[in-house]
UniProtKB/TrEMBL annotation:
It comes from Paraperlucidibaca baekdonensis. The keyword Phosphoprotein does not apply. GO terms for molecular function: efflux transmembrane transporter activity; porin activity. It is found in: Cell outer membrane. PANTHER family: OUTER MEMBRANE PROTEIN TOLC (PTHR30026:SF20). Residues 154-219 form a coiled coil. GO terms for cellular component: cell outer membrane; efflux pump complex. The keyword Nucleotide-binding does not apply. Residues 1-20 form the signal peptide. The lineage of its organism: Bacteria, Pseudomonadati, Pseudomonadota, Gammaproteobacteria, Moraxellales. InterPro entries: OMP_efflux (IPR003423), T1SS_OMP_TolC (IPR010130), TolC-like (IPR051906). It comes from the Bacteria. This is TolC family type I secretion outer membrane protein.
Length: 456
């Protein structure tokens, strides 16, 4: 999964304000505005540097040195023979040194293994970045559809309040004419007041969900595209609980990261075992020293150049048992990584199987809720007709209307549960990326609709 700046994202960078209307636009805006996406991109770039740093231990090392100093030399005079001036004594001179050294590793198995471990570390961090990106995509999708769910709930609540207010007006007119009792009026007033409270609660919930979405996106979203009423409610493919369990174990980015962690731990253990092996380097050095001033003959004798070419070896025979302990510790870390992976794999497999079964149930549930709504509406119309001729009471009418309202809410929730469980299925098998978002984005309508308009 690669987070990249696509053409829509570049357009956002160049445009002072872009109104995000559908889910894909919202995601593209968040990729630019949300600092967590920027942090993911930085994390990937940081991970790319680890192998380069480790590889440096296998490449030539070049060191240049230079120094300039004034030296005060104090020596006892040395007499070589009678009549020969003594050598030594106090003198001062200027010293200039410069040189260079090149070292090329010939055999450093530990550095090579550390380079392999750094490559695995990069792959592990990339896999974890994929998992974090999926979390961000899911959180944005969840906030988006929670906003739509809250919009539908508010639309249904307002529709019911308007219907009850209109019916109360009609009942009050009938009460003035003596056709209904005061009990009917009080009952309908109670229902209207309860509906008004539901509207207030729904408005508060919608405001909360909008703020959550705005916070994730990084800028206010004025209007969001609504969910079409003809979304494809299909059973998951492949239609096999075992297949989804296998897909999750094979493709889940968290599990991939833990598998890489096992391999990295093995390589680290091999790298520590190289503490028993020697290191062999080729080296070449050049040094030039110039000593000037002073009358001591030994000073002049120390001036000159030195060229050295050779092979050096270093073999640590005994380090107090530290190498053995480190190797043992690395072995235990490998065992622990395997145990954690097995535990996580079983958990994720079970989650994938459960999500598959839930998604299948969601598809059937939507169809069942559609039938329940139609039945409730038919029953309501029959009771409404009976109420108008006096064969049903206002309690019967209000109860039937409540059933219709509840059926609308349940159908709306079933549709959003189905959509979000689709996202969860994509996420657990490691496929919650822009392609998945584009697919579900096709289920949205560009024009706003009320929840009651979408009821079959």
């Amino acid at each position: 999964m690669i987070i990249r700046l696509s053409l829509p994202v570049l357009a956002l960078l160049l445009s002072p304000s872009v109104a995000a209307t559908n889910l894909l636009d919202v995601v593209h805006t968040a990729e630019v505005k949300n600092a967590r996406f920027a942090a993911l991109r930085t994390t990937r770039m940081l991970a790319d540097q680890s192998p380069d740093i480790a590889r440096a231990a296998l490449l030539p090392q070049i060191v240049l040195t230079a120094s300039s100093s004034t030296v005060n030399l104090q020596q006892d005079p040395i007499t070589f023979a009678p009549g020969v001036p003594p050598a030594g004594g106090d003198t001062a001179y200027d010293s200039t040194d410069w040189g260079g050294r090149v070292v090329q590793p010939l055999f450093n198995w530990g550095a090579f293994k550390q380079y392999q471990a750094a490559q695995l570390q990069r792959s592990q961090e990339q896999a974890r970045a994929d998992a974090n990106a999926q979390d961000l995509y899911f959180n944005i999708a969840s906030a988006y559809f929670d906003t739509l769910r809250a919009q539908d709930a508010l639309s249904i609540a307002r529709s019911r309040l308007a219907s009850l207010a209109k019916r109360l007006e009609e009942a009050q007119a009938k009460y003035a004419a003596g056709f209904v009792s005061q009990v009917d009026i009080l009952e309908q007033e109670s229902q209207r007041d309860a509906a008004a409270n539901q509207v207030l609660s729904a408005e508060d919930q919608l405001n909360t969900q909008r703020e959550n979405l705005n916070a994730l996106v990084g800028e206010p979203i004025a209007e969001v595209a609504t969910l079409r009423d003809d979304i494809p409610v299909l059973l998951p493919t492949p239609n096999s609980v075992d297949a989804w369990g296998r897909l999750a174990v094979e493709q889940n980015p968290d599990l991939l990261a833990s598998l890489i962690a096992i391999e990295q731990s093995k390589v680290n253990q091999s790298a520590l075992k190289t503490g028993y092996l020697p290191q062999v380097n080729f080296f070449a050095s050049y040094n030039e020293r110039r000593l000037e001033g002073g009358d001591n003959p030994s000073v002049a004798l120390n001036s000159g150049t030195t060229d050295v070419v050779g092979i050096e070896a270093r073999w640590e025979i005994f380090s107090g048992g530290a190498t053995h302990a480190r190797v043992k510790q690395a072995g235990l870390q490998t065992t622990l990584a395997k145990q954690n992976h097995e535990s996580d794999a079983k958990l994720i497999e079970n989650q994938a199987r459960a999500l598959f079964m839930t998604s299948k149930t969601d598809a059937y549930r939507i169809k069942a809720k559609q039938r329940s709504l139609r039945s409730a509406e038919v029953a309501y119309r029959a009771i409404e007709a009976g109420y108008s001729v006096g064969t049903h009471s206002v309690v019967d009418l209000m109860s039937s209307e409540t059933k219709v309202n509840n059926a609308r809410v349940e159908l709306s929730n079933a549709r959003y549960d189905y959509v979000m469980n689709c996202f969860r299925l994509y996420k657990i098998i490691g496929l919650l990326n822009e392609s998945a978002i584009v697919r579900i984005n096709g289920w949205l309508s560009a024009s706003p609709q009320s929840a009651t308009d979408r009821v079959p």
